[in-house]
Amino acid sequence: MTSAAPTPTPGLAEPDAADLRQAELPPVMPIAILTLALVVSGGVTVAAQYGRAAHLTVPSVLMGVAAALLVANAVLLARIGEFAWPVFFRVLGWALLAYLVIAGILEYVFVYEHTPARLLTLFSALLLLFAVDVPLMLAYSVARWQPTDAA
Half-sphere exposure (CA, 13 Å, Cβ side) for 113? Predict the structure, then answer.
């Protein structure tokens, strides 16, 4: 029999400081993913009615819930004390720029195709939620693993 200590399995070592800090953070990602799912569901529901008499109750409710979740997520994020805010805002800025360009191109297509006003209003609101939610997810997922003193 040998008395050699067993080697730890790769990936199952003791958690480091970044791993331990994750437990203190609010559930921003699950809420953001739910927000994105509601936005996409609302967009698909509106698109399915394109060219017909539109019943906008369900997509409007989905949009309202998604907007409330996005605001709640922003409040949760703002309450985080020790966080890599410079990294968060750097990623958020560039991602927001990219997603606003994407949303702008889609908005142009809707206007160019003479989308009816009620549908256009709902599509525009859903695009705005999409263009804010995805950059928020990207920025948070990058900044949460950075050292809190990162600049």
Answer: 12
